[in-house]
């Protein structure tokens, strides 16, 4: 499961719906893996305003990943406007050694946009779309329910009385 | 031919054998692909989006979402999240290394994502399964309403969903679409090849409050065989499937119900033992 998904997933139990503590679910005994994927700049720009950044930072720290900046990048931070302009100074400063992974992923070709992803986009892509939880549990901060994750697949089937 | 959802619950029907048979059939691959493309054309996506695939199965529908525009996926490649009630189907999806994230979940229990998560949702050949309740505490109406309420909340304003499903009859068609309307959706039914053996029903759903073209009448106007529902109507919801008491289908279902009673997680003991089965 990608960390992107974890930034949108909530506890499925009815009585948790109204509680702020039911999001985000907290990983426990999690095993991580980096799965390479093509960088999709248009997707990153699309999803950026919907991210819950503080919660993403909490999850990153709970997983022992390098700290994310306090404020989210802006859409403009994600691309290098022209080949001559320097890359934005703010990067997410993800240490590539911290999780065993390849360097820069290939970029999805697009003939409409000529934009080049910045280092910030590459880092955001790495954390959201390439960093995956393969094993472990996701725990609700409100009710304590544990959702098992196996082979990256989380089990959200609920016993009847909790639906 | 009998309908699979009248014989067994979905997680038992789509066991390891059936899931493999389903996924490797070139006839099924072709049908699922063409219906997914049809659904995508109704979503009118123009840029890479976050899409939910309800009843994603082994990923025949989802893998099309991962393709780019040159391969015929408008606005693609999209990022998708799929869930399905059958661990065997998901096991096949894992073997195929689909790009979407997968969940084991029951659409009749809701959609566990925060409000406004998805740009769009698709469901290909799955929603008819919600018209059967598998335990005595549940009703098809209750399951449909939990699903559509959850789906509505999880879509962003202006978002769209397209559910292709196989209604058993007009009553079921009504039951499904009225549950969607009651959840707040603008809804339209689109029928391809109506009245033929190959008839396909698409429920096209919009969440208002976004772009002007989020209005359903804009989507389906001018299309043949489209029935736009803009009024919230009540459908008489049936409590149970239509199996005659004592019939073979009825006994099979009862038997499965008894076996499943009281189990927290649907166990798979008799059906397990193959390659990528995820045993929870
Ligand atoms: C005909 S398959 C379609 C799979 C995939 N969408 C495709 O196009 O190939 C129907 C799927 O719906 C799933 N399903 C049935 N009832 C479900 C439910 N209540 N929640 C989630 N998935 C369900 C089944 O397990 C099965 O994988
Ligand atoms: Zn909870």
From TrEMBL, chain A:
<dbReference type="InterPro" id="IPR039127">
    <property type="entry name" value="Trm112"/>
</dbReference>
<protein>
    <submittedName>
        <fullName>Trm112p-domain-containing protein</fullName>
    </submittedName>
</protein>
<dbReference type="Pfam" id="PF03966">
    <property type="entry name" value="Trm112p"/>
</dbReference>
<dbReference type="GO" id="GO:0070476">
    <property type="term" value="P:rRNA (guanine-N7)-methylation"/>
</dbReference>
<dbReference type="GO" id="GO:0030488">
    <property type="term" value="P:tRNA methylation"/>
</dbReference>
<dbReference type="InterPro" id="IPR005651">
    <property type="entry name" value="Trm112-like"/>
</dbReference>
<comment type="similarity">
    <text>Belongs to the TRM112 family.</text>
</comment>
<dbReference type="GO" id="GO:0046982">
    <property type="term" value="F:protein heterodimerization activity"/>
</dbReference>
<feature type="region of interest" description="Disordered">
    <location>
        <begin position="69"/>
        <end position="119"/>
    </location>
</feature>
TrEMBL record, chain B:
<keyword id="KW-0808">Transferase</keyword>
<feature type="compositionally biased region" description="Basic and acidic residues">
    <location>
        <begin position="253"/>
        <end position="262"/>
    </location>
</feature>
<feature type="domain" description="18S rRNA (guanine(1575)-N(7))-methyltransferase Bud23 C-terminal">
    <location>
        <begin position="222"/>
        <end position="277"/>
    </location>
</feature>
<dbReference type="Pfam" id="PF12589">
    <property type="entry name" value="WBS_methylT"/>
</dbReference>
<dbReference type="InterPro" id="IPR013216">
    <property type="entry name" value="Methyltransf_11"/>
</dbReference>
<dbReference type="InterPro" id="IPR039769">
    <property type="entry name" value="Bud23-like"/>
</dbReference>
<keyword id="KW-0539">Nucleus</keyword>
<dbReference type="InterPro" id="IPR029063">
    <property type="entry name" value="SAM-dependent_MTases_sf"/>
</dbReference>
<dbReference type="GO" id="GO:0005730">
    <property type="term" value="C:nucleolus"/>
</dbReference>
<dbReference type="GO" id="GO:0016435">
    <property type="term" value="F:rRNA (guanine) methyltransferase activity"/>
</dbReference>
<dbReference type="Pfam" id="PF08241">
    <property type="entry name" value="Methyltransf_11"/>
</dbReference>
<keyword id="KW-0949">S-adenosyl-L-methionine</keyword>
<feature type="region of interest" description="Disordered">
    <location>
        <begin position="233"/>
        <end position="265"/>
    </location>
</feature>
<protein>
    <submittedName>
        <fullName>Williams Beuren syndrome chromosome region 22 protein-like protein</fullName>
    </submittedName>
</protein>
<dbReference type="GO" id="GO:0005737">
    <property type="term" value="C:cytoplasm"/>
</dbReference>
<dbReference type="GO" id="GO:0070476">
    <property type="term" value="P:rRNA (guanine-N7)-methylation"/>
</dbReference>
<keyword id="KW-0963">Cytoplasm</keyword>
<comment type="similarity">
    <text>Belongs to the class I-like SAM-binding methyltransferase superfamily. BUD23/WBSCR22 family.</text>
</comment>
<dbReference type="InterPro" id="IPR022238">
    <property type="entry name" value="Bud23_C"/>
</dbReference>
<feature type="compositionally biased region" description="Basic and acidic residues">
    <location>
        <begin position="233"/>
        <end position="246"/>
    </location>
</feature>
<keyword id="KW-0489">Methyltransferase</keyword>
<feature type="domain" description="Methyltransferase type 11">
    <location>
        <begin position="52"/>
        <end position="162"/>
    </location>
</feature>
């Amino acid at each position: 499961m990608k960390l992107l998904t974890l930034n949108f997933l909530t506890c499925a139990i009815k009585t948790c719906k109204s509680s702020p503590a039911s999001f985000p679910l907290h990983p426990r005994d999690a095993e991580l893996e980096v799965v390479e994927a093509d960088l999709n700049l248009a997707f990153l720009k699309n999803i950026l305003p919907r991210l819950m950044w503080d919660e993403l930072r909490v999850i990153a720290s709970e997983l022992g990943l390098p700290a994310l900046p306090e404020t989210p990048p802006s859409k403009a931070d994600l691309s290098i406007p022209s080949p001559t302009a320097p890359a934005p100074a703010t990067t997410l400063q993800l240490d590539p050694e911290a999780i065993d992974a390849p360097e820069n992923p290939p970029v999805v070709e697009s003939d409409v946009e000529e934009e080049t992803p910045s280092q910030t986009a590459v880092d955001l892509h790495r954390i959201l779309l390439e960093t995956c939880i393969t094993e472990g549990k996701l725990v609700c901060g409100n009710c304590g329910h544990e959702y098992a994750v196996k082979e990256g697949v989380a089990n959200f089937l609920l016993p009847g009385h909790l639906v | 031919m009998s309908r699979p959802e009248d014989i067994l619950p979905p997680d038992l029907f789509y066991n390891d054998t059936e899931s493999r048979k389903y996924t490797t059939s070139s006839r099924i691959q072709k049908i699922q692909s063409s219906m997914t493309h049809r659904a995508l054309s109704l979503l009118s996506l123009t840029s890479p989006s976050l899409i939910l695939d309800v009843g994603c199965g082994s990923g025949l529908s989802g893998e099309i979402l991962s393709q780019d525009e040159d391969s015929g996926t408008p606005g693609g490649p999209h990022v998708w999240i799929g869930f399905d009630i059958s661990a065997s189907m998901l096991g096949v999806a894992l073997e195929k290394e689909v790009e979407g994230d997968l969940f084991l979940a029951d659409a009749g229990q809701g959609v566990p994502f925060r409000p406004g998560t998805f740009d769009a949702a698709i469901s290909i050949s799955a929603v008819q399964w919600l018209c059967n309740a598998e335990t005595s505490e549940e009703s098809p109406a209750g399951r449909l309403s939990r699903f559509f309420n959850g789906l509505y909340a999880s879509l962003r304003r202006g978002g769209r969903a397209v559910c292709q499903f196989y209604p058993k009859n007009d009553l079921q068609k009504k039951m499904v679409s009225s549950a969607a309307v009651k959840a707040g959706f603008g809804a339209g039914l689109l029928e391809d090849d109506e009245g033929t053996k190959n008839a396909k029903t698409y429920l096209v759903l919009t969440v208002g409050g976004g772009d002007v073209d989020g209005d359903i009448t804009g989507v389906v106007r001018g299309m043949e065989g489209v029935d736009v529902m803009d009024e919230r109507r009540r459908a008489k919801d049936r409590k149970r499937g239509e199996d005659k008491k004592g019939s073979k289908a009825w006994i099979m279902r009862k038997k499965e119900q008894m076996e499943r009673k009281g189990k927290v997680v649907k166990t798979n003991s008799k059906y397990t033992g193959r390659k990528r089965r995820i045993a929870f």
